Every structure is written in structure tokens, then in C-alpha cells.
From TrEMBL:
CDD domains: D-HYD (cd01314). Belongs to the metallo-dependent hydrolases superfamily. Hydantoinase/dihydropyrimidinase family. The keyword Hydrolase applies. Its EC number is 3.5.2.2. It is an enzyme of class 3 (hydrolase). InterPro entries: Amidohydro-rel (IPR006680), Hydantoinase/dihydroPyrase (IPR011778), Metal-dep_hydrolase_composite (IPR011059), Metal_Hydrolase (IPR032466), Metallo-dep_Hydrolases_sf (IPR050378). The keyword Metal-binding applies. Gene3D superfamilies: Metal-dependent hydrolases, Urease, subunit C, domain 1. GO terms for molecular function: dihydropyrimidinase activity. Keywords: Hydrolase, Metal-binding. PANTHER family: COLLAPSIN RESPONSE MEDIATOR PROTEIN (PTHR11647:SF1), HYDRANTOINASE/DIHYDROPYRIMIDINASE FAMILY MEMBER (PTHR11647). This is Dihydropyrimidinase.
Length: 472
């Protein structure tokens, strides 16, 4: 029967979110058609002996080619960003299509499709960002877009150009409930951050490090609780994205104990970095390499995040890849004349789409903190389930897309900027020692990357999404 397979992956250990087992995989027309002890004969054979065979990584939180309020240009477009993603073991990414205030959400989505078309090395789908919830957006554009397969959107509780008032949040949540969309919330209290920023600046504390004090964990905890309360009032499921530490995480656990439909995501920066990294060498601009929002916290928060990854508080582990340059006037570092005057001008975001999977595997699986099954759940299966891609994506099962990452659990290497494919001119994880690397990324049956190098054409496709399992 399997003589008609295009591809056979032999001899590896298949790992799903639930279990692991030894089997071959047969692929035809880009889909898995056989999982058995022995797949006989295929046009292409891949020997996976000694390797783990995982569902391709799904990075459900990346920013590519997104404009910024001050005109700073992101370091990755769809070409470089998805190249980096594929090299890092991912087969699908979900960037944001951001509405710019005063413009049509639909037009913004069309513009992102144009940016992505023909340029992607992984499959791609878009979350929306709603920044201007006008009656036209709430009444027409957003419902129509959800029905067209853009089934999740993000809202912000901070940033001058993105923040929604509590009244607006409630209105937007209401639309999400009616239309069966999943809301992602950036939970940081805007007024508290502005207050802290002003105080720090008045005291002359303007180095990048003070970003971490301005974006205080208390402000994140408060906003997380407020978002949960709004979600309870409007009876809508939400995802709190990029949860950074113990305090906001406890709010999520509090909500779950009461049966509220609150989901949570965390990211590599909250297990691999601390706020001390923002000090740089001596409170200098090296610290700008670690400026992201929310910022990394302390070692107690890192321990809390590990508890949450183990006990299921976190269902999603995404990169929040938000790449900028460090060098040059457009960069986050000392050559940027505005950033020199205050941390508040340092663009918020760090690259990480290529290093997300190695960091979680190495720090989590190789160090015995989480099982390899949970690794798969956090990085592929749960994102597919929560964002309407399952079981086409995020599964190794008959009929699923043959999106597969071959993983060498014993390979040791060191994260180095010169080996990465992203557009940024640095990595915040420089020098980190890693055990366990993706060695081959297969997208719908075709190898797209091997040993950190992309080797295929940009055949990534846009993926229209169904309703989230959190909503259905
Ligand atoms: N939020 C994100 O999700 N990414 C980067 C910066 C931010 O505030
Ligand atoms: Zn955010
Ligand atoms: Zn983000």
C-alpha cells in the first residue's frame, strides 16, 4: 500500500502531546497517510534513527514587518522571519495584522497579505490587533473578518497608540463572545507605567535597565486581574499573552480555580533572562538588547513560570519574536539619539523565533523540568487547538499536514548570532549552551530546513483558521 508514498520517515520516536512511540510515517500529497511499524517503499526516504519525530513547531506569537509608532523599522519581514522560524524547527507562525488607528482593519489585513505573499518558508496565519474599535470596526469589519477565518485578535491595555479604555475593552470582548473569536490580551496597566516612567525620568534614571522598573510586575498583575474581571463580566474566554512572572500568573490561577475561561502564554525571555540582564555591562546600552514588554523579572519569577509550565497554567509557549536592530540610529542601542535620552524610546521587543524551541527543550526537557510530551503540547499542539488549526496542524495523525520536525535530543551547541537566520544584528541569548536541536524541518512533506539552513523555496501558505477550542 505504501509504495505510493512520496516520503517515508523511518526509525524515529514519534512524540505527541499525549505519548511517544516508535513508528514510521508515510506521507502523500503533503499529508500523513500512514503511521505503522514499517512503511514500505516511498519516493523519498528519511532516516530518523536516534531522533525524535515531533509535530512542527507552531509559534503563535510573532511580529513581522509591523510598523511602529516612532517609525523604527522591524528587523524581519516575512522572508527573513519565516526563514528564521523554519531553521528553528517551526512549520507555522502566527504574526499580527495590526490595525493603525484611523484606518480600516480590513485594509490592514489586506496589506499584511501583500507583505507575506510568496515570501514565506513556513505556513502563516494572522491574528488581528484591534487598536481603533469604532462602530464600523465592531459592527461590521471585525465580525466579517472572524467569519473569514481570522478567529483571534489582540488588544492592548498599554501604549499610547494601542491602548483601549476599559469601556472599549468591554465592547470588544462582547463582539468576541458574539462572533466566537478568541481575545488575546496584553495586560500591563498604562497609567501605572506612565506614572513610573515620569518618576524615574525625574530622578535621572533613564538607562535601559529602568524600563524593567517602569513596566513593574505590579502593573502587570493589576491589568491581568482587570482583564480577567472584564472577561468574566462579558462571559468570554481570553488568553493572557506573554505572562512574565509569579504575580500575574497567580491571577490566572485564581481565575481558573473559579472556573473562568482564562488561558495563558509565556515566552523564552521569562525563563532564560532576568531584569538584571537589562543592566548591560555597567548600566550601559548593552541592556537595550533585553528590552521587551513585559520585561523579564527575577529568579523567583523564573521558578514560578516553570511551575506554571509543569502544572498546565501555561498552555502556550511562544517566542513573542519582535525583532529590532541594535546598531545604528534606527536601532535599540546607543546610536539611537532618542533612546539615549530615555529608556522609554527604546523599542520594546527582542528576536526569538529561531531559539524558542531549543531554549525550552534544553532548559525544560534536557534538564528534566518538563516531559517531551509537554514540550510538544506547549509548542505545537496547544497553539493549534487554541487558534483553530487543529487537527490539520499540531498533530502527528492520519490526515494531518505532514508538518514534522526531526529533533536530535543529544546535540549540544551554543546560541551564536552568526549562526542565526533572523534579521536582527544580535541575539539576547548569545552564548547560551543548548542540549537538543532541530535538525530537519518538514513542511507539508517537503524538507524546508536542515541543520539551521533553509534549503527550499518559499512555499509557505496562508492558513485560514477555524474557531478556537477555547470558544467552541
Ligand atoms: N507586546 C508584544 O506582544 N510584543 C512586543 C512588545 C509588546 O508590547
Ligand atoms: Zn504584547
Ligand atoms: Zn508580541
Amino acid at each position: 500500500m505504501s509504495a505510493s508514498c512520496d516520503l517515508a520517515i523511518r526509525g524515529g520516536t514519534i512524540v505527541t502531546a499525549a505519548d511517544r512511540f516508535r513508528a514510521d510515517i508515510g506521507v502523500r500529497d503533503g499529508r500523513i497517510v500512514e503511521i505503522s511499524e514499517r512503511v514500505e517503499g516511498a519516493a523519498e526516504e528519511v532516516d530518523a534513527t536516534g531522533l525524535l519525530v515531533l509535530p512542527g513547531g507552531i509559534d503563535a506569537h510573532v511580529h513581522l514587518a509591523q510598523p511602529t509608532s516612532d517609525g523604527t523599522v522591524m528587523a524581519d519581514d516575512f522572508e527573513t522571519g519565516t526563514r528564521s522560524a523554519a531553521a528553528g524547527g517551526n512549520t507555522t507562525v502566527l504574526p499580527f495584522a495590526m490595525q493603525i488607528k484611523g484606518t480600516s482593519l480590513r485594509d490592514c489585513v489586506t496589506a499584511y497579505h501583500r507583505k507575506a505573499e510568496g515570501k514565506c518558508y513556513t505556513d502563516v496565519s494572522f491574528h488581528l490587533i484591534v487598536s481603533d474599535p469604532t462602530p464600523q470596526v465592531l459592527g461590521q469589519e471585525l465580525p466579517a473578518l472572524v467569519r473569514d477565518g481570522y478567529t483571534s485578535f489582540k488588544v492592548f491595555m498599554t501604549y499610547d497608540d494601542l491602548v483601549l479604555s476599559d469601556a472599549e475593552l468591554l465592547e470588544v470582548f462582547d463582539v468576541a463572545r458574539r462572533e466566537k473569536a478568541l481575545v488575546m490580551v496584553h495586560a500591563e496597566g498604562h497609567d501605572a507605567i506612565k506614572y513610573m516612567t515620569r518618576k524615574l525620568e525625574e530622578d535621572g534614571r533613564t538607562a535601559p535597565y529602568y524600563h524593567a522598573e517602569a513596566h513593574a510586575e505590579i502593573a502587570e498583575r493589576e491589568a491581568t486581574h482587570r482583564a480577567i474581571s472584564h472577561a468574566q463580566l462579558t462571559d468570554v474566554p481570553i488568553v493572557i499573552v506573554h505572562v512574565s512572572g509569579r504575580d500575574p500568573m497567580e491571577q490566572i490561577q485564581w481565575a481558573r480555580k473559579r472556573g473562568l475561561k482564562v488561558h495563558a502564554e509565556t515566552c523564552p525571555q521569562y525563563i532564560a533572562l532576568t531584569k538584571d540582564d537589562l543592566k548591560g555591562l555597567n548600566m550601559d546600552f548593552e541592556g537595550a538588547k533585553y528590552v521587551c514588554s513585559p520585561p523579564p523579572r527575577d529568579t523567583d519569577s523564573q521558578a514560578a513560570i516553570w511551575e506554571g509550565l509543569r502544572d498546565g497554567t501555561f498552555e502556550l509557549f511562544s517566542s513573542d519574536h519582535c525583532p529590532f536592530y541594535f546598531q545604528g540610529a534606527e536601532g535599540t542601542g546607543k546610536d539611537n539619539p532618542r533612546a539615549r535620552t530615555s529608556f522609554k524610546w527604546v523599542p520594546n521587543g527582542i528576536p526569538g523565533v529561531e531559539t524558542r524551541l531549543p531554549i525550552l527543550f534544553s532548559e525544560g526537557v534536557s534538564k528534566g523540568r518538563i516531559s517531551v510530551e509537554r514540550f510538544v503540547a506547549l509548542t505545537a499542539t496547544n497553539p493549534a487547538r487554541l487558534y483553530g488549526l487543529y487537527p490539520r496542524k499540531g498533530a502527528i495523525a492520519i490526515g494531518a499536514d505532514a508538518d514534522i520536525t526531526l529533533w536530535d535530543p543529544d546535540r549540544r551547541d551554543t546560541i551564536r548570532q552568526e549562526k542565526l537566520n533572523h534579521g536582527s544584528d544580535y541575539t539576547p541569548y548569545e552564548g547560551m549552551e543548548i542540549t537538543g536541536w532541530p535538525v530537519r524541518t518538514i513542511l507539508r512533506g517537503r524538507t524546508v530546513a536542515r541543520d539551521g539552513q533553509v534549503e527550499a523555496e518559499a512555499t509557505g501558505q496562508y492558513q485560514s483558521r477555524g474557531v478556537s477550542e477555547a470558544v467552541a
